[in-house]
Amino acid sequence: MLLKRIIPCLDTAGGRVVKGTHFQQLRDQGDPVALARAYSEDGADELTFLDIDATPQGRATLVDLVERTAYEVFIPLTVGGGIREVDEIRTLLRAGADKVSIQTAAVQRPELITEAARAFGSQCIVVAIDAKRVAGDGWMAFTHGGRTPTGIEAVGWAIEAQHRGAGEILLTSIDADGTRAGYDLELTRAVVDAVQIPVIASGGAGHPKDLEAVLTVGRADAALAASIFHSGAFPIPQVKAYLAGHGIPVRI
Amino acid sequence: MIALIDYGAGNLRSVENALARLNATATIAATPEDLDRAQAILFPGVGAAAPAMASLRDRGLDRAVITAIRNGVPFLGICLGMQLLFERSAEDGAACLGIIPGTVERLNTREKLPHVGWNTLEHVRPHPVLEGIEGEAFYFVHSYVVLPRHPAVVAGDTTHGVPFVSAIARQGLVGVQFHPERSGTAGLRLLENFLRFAKVEAAA
């Protein structure tokens, strides 16, 4: 049976992790490679690097970081953050990324999804959608961390992304993100029910029960989280043991 | 010499990295001559069957792979690298290498495709390369699966709504649908098994 995936997300800039993590001995050095290795050894099923430094110099540093991570971490690695061009995707995949996540550029130029999927296969193209609940019912897609409205309805955008060749949807609830009060289950379920490709839920994890809820009620294929792991509150083995204890198939 | 076939369709880097972790060095093989000298061959692959076959033919690697396998060189096909060993793929209707009787078809399941993520390898048939990995989870990314004509080559299966063949073995030839190079310690174990098997075969 296909197992549910648990994915820690690391925010990077200038080749460093920019948010603290509980790996005390590693925190000072903030080295994403060391952290990636630690999470991998802890039982992470995949890793996501979200680069928040989209300058040309930062890009070169990111490529180097991906190379160094792929050299010693043997689980799938997704890289996102400011990716705009097919050539950039090629460079990151060659450096050792297994998938790339595109967001703003996909909204601005949806053909990028098609071009990238044709060039490299849908399996490595993740379309990231940041969704915010709007008055009435439904959700709209936003960019720039929820600051910029796109005027695009989020569930419909997920469907279009799939048709254009996305292999997965990385769905973040802007309302839930940072609250540690749980994922937006309704949003997750709405997108999962609308598309046939895997959906990675993101935003709001504060307790293992939140991951359980989004993987069962929300029917997500994978749960991405940052602070719940970085803070040390709930290490991956504990989260996975909790999920397994509640009948969710996970890799132990 | 361990050859890693480069036909422009594989994610060579991650296989190379995994071998490096196991203190093995692979030689990138892009010509038939490279394969002639190989004591073991790894055949990775990501992507679609038709362009991969075209690229193999352009480089003359199709005949070289067939010859190497006929000569009993230990061989590990990964994902598309396993599928291409069959006669034909329903993906683009591509004619493949025809080394293993059977075809490649889209997985007939009600579950989501592509089948992405970790899934377990079951019913493993004893083979030195597949030792100690029964029941372990491996990372899969695919929509198509192999349908061997002879059940005897089936060496393991996995269930995604329906069971499908996720490992094959015929003497020194092994193929897996998953990506050992992306499957953590279980994947490294399989690659280590393969390297050890190749060494034993080379000494024999």
What do you see in this structure?
- With 252 residues, chain A is an alpha/beta fold.
- Chain A has eleven helices and eleven strands.
- The mean pLDDT of chain B is 94.
- Chain B is of the alpha/beta class and 204 residues long.
- Chain B is built from six helices and 13 strands.
- The chains are: A alpha/beta (252), B alpha/beta (204).
- At the A-B interface, helix 3 and helix 4 of A face helix 1, strand 8, strand 9 and helix 6 of B.
Summarize the structure.
The complex is a heterodimer of chains A (252) and B (204). Chain A is α/β, with parallel strands linked by helices and 252 residues long.
Topology:
The complex is a heterodimer of chains A (252) and B (204).
Chain A: E1 5-13, E2 16-17, H1 24-27, H2 32-42, E3 47-51, H3 56-72, E4 77-80, H4 86-95, E5 99-102, H5 104-108, H6 111-120, E6 125-133, E7 139-143, E8 148-153, H7 154-164, E9 168-173, H8 185-194, E10 199-202, H9 208-216, E11 222-225, H10 227-230, H11 236-245
Parallel strand pairs in A: 1-3, 1-11, 3-4, 4-5, 5-6, 6-9, 9-10, 10-11
Antiparallel strand pairs in A: 1-2, 6-7, 7-8
Chain B: E1 2-5, H1 12-21, E2 26-29, H2 32-36, E3 40-43, H3 49-58, H4 61-70, E4 75-78, H5 80-83, E5 88-89, E6 94-95, E7 102-106, E8 115-120, E9 137-142, E10 144-148, E11 154-160, E12 162-170, E13 173-176, H6 184-203
Parallel strand pairs in B: 1-2, 1-3, 3-4, 4-13, 5-7
Antiparallel strand pairs in B: 5-6, 7-10, 8-9, 11-12, 12-13
CATH topology-level fold name of chain A: TIM Barrel
The neighbouring-strand order within the major sheet of chain B is 2-1-3-4-13-12-11
By DSSP, the count of extended strands of chain A is 11
Mean pLDDT of chain A: 92
Rg of chain A, alpha carbons: 17 Å
Indicate the CATH architecture of chain B.
3-Layer(aba) Sandwich
Largest interface: A-B, 31 and 33 residues
Count of individual beta strands of chain B: 13
Helix content of chain A: 40-55%
Spatial gap, N to C terminus of chain A: 14 Å
* Stretches with pLDDT under 50, minimum 5 residues of chain B: none
